[in-house]
């Protein structure tokens, strides 16, 4: 672990856990993420964004430098289903775009508790349908996401598999794949988790789920059935409470015949990739994802 990540994590953990222990409404989390996106997350040279209104809602097109790749990235932002916008995650995604020569389509989806699940899943599906209507074949689309967005990306994969649509590949960074939070790491990693204390996970689930059951496969892809799986990459931190979501999700996809790569990183914060430019592990994880994307052309 780099000294910079150790120092930043040490400063981050007490502040974030105190806030997460006390917050009762999503508005403070949304404000904090917006402020971080504006003042903390690092802008990528050559980054360009374009807002789009389409039948599914609102989205950002993001690229950084020349677009050389005919494939497109459908990227779903995280935020615990209750926070986040394309704008909060655009800088991290722009780094991946710069490394791959791709452009990314980042849909805004409805947030809970105002719009409980499966509203977010419905909006992400509309984003996929828009790209298809614009002429992108399934094999030209790579789906990605982080945290809640990683779970949404995997939920979309399950739905597409039932229809015989196979994207080029799917990656998930620190995915939230089980809203029942039944993984052993929820408790065993509570002391090392940087952001979200284990005692609050079911409060989050209650806000996100509305009337849905936590193990409904539509919102918890760990319990979904997968078929016709493309290659999948999952990255997670060994110290986060969602580590077992990543491990178990990888096994479910392997059992379904998928070629799955699971990368686990020591002592990193949840979705550490968003700290690109602050410590080297963030850039290294994005670079590993870029190499994986490049390898898809050979499969």
Description:
The protein has 299 residues and is α/β, with parallel strands linked by helices. The protein is built from nine helices and eight strands. Helix 2 crosses helix 3, helix 3 crosses helix 9 (280-295) and helix 4 packs across helix 5. The longest helix has 20 residues, at 3-22. The mean pLDDT is 95. Residues 73-273 form the Alpha/beta hydrolase fold-3 domain. This is Esterase, putative. Keywords: Hydrolase. GO terms for molecular function: hydrolase activity.
Keywords:
single chain, 299 residues, alpha/beta, Rossmann fold, eight-stranded mixed β-sheet, globular, hydrolase activity
- CATH architecture descriptor name: 3-Layer(aba) Sandwich
In CATH terms, the superfamily is Alpha/Beta hydrolase fold, catalytic domain
| Uncertain ranges | none
* Tertiary shape: globular
The CATH first-level class comes to Alpha Beta
As a percent range, the share of helical residues equals: 40-55%
* Total E-strand runs: 8
Terminal residue distance: 33 Å
CATH topology: Rossmann fold
Whole-angstrom Rg: 17 Å
Question: Which strand order spans the largest sheet, edge to edge or round the barrel?
Answer: 1-2-4-3-5-6-7-8
Estimate the mean pLDDT confidence. 95
The portion of residues forming beta strands comes to 15-25%
| Secondary-structure element series | HHEEEHEHEHEHHEHEH
The oligomerization state is single chain
Structural class: alpha/beta
Largest sheet: 8 strands, mixed
Please, how many domains? 1
Number of helices: 9
Keywords: Hydrolase
GO molecular function, one term: hydrolase activity
InterPro entries: AB_hydrolase_3, AB_hydrolase_fold, GDXG_lipolytic_enzyme
Protein name: Esterase, putative
């Amino acid at each position: 672990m780099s000294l910079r990540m150790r120092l930043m994590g040490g400063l981050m953990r007490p502040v974030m856990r105190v806030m997460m222990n006390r917050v009762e409404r999503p508005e403070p989390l949304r404000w904090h993420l917006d402020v971080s996106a504006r003042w903390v997350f690092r802008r990528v040279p050559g980054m360009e964004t374009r807002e789009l209104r389409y039948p599914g809602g609102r989205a950002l097109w993001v690229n950084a430098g020349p677009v050389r790749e005919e494939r497109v990235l459908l990227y779903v932002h995280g935020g615990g289903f209750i926070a986040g916008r394309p704008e909060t995650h655009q800088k991290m995604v722009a780094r991946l775009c710069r490394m791959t020569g791709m452009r990314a389509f980042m849909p805004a989806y409805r947030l809970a508790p105002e719009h409980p699940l499966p509203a977010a899943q419905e909006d992400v599906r509309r984003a996929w349908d828009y790209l298809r209507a614009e002429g992108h074949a399934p094999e030209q689309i790579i789906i990605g996401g982080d945290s809640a967005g990683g779970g949404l990306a995997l939920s979309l994969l399950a739905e597409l598999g039932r229809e015989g649509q196979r994207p080029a590949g799917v990656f998930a960074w620190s995915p939230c794949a089980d809203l029942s939070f039944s993984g052993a790491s929820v408790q065993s990693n509570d002391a090392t988790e940087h952001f979200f204390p284990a005692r609050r996970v079911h409060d989050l689930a209650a806000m996100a789920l509305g009337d849905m059951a936590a193990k409904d496969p539509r919102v918890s892809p760990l319990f979904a059935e997968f078929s016709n799986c493309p290659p999948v990459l999952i990255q997670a931190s060994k110290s986060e409470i969602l580590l077992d979501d990543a491990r178990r999700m990888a096994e479910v996809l392997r059992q379904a015949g998928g070629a799955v790569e699971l990368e686990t990183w020591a002592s990193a914060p949840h979705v550490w990739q968003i700290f690109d430019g602050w410590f080297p592990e963030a850039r290294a994880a994005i670079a590993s994802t870029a190499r994986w994307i490049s390898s898809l052309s050979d499969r």
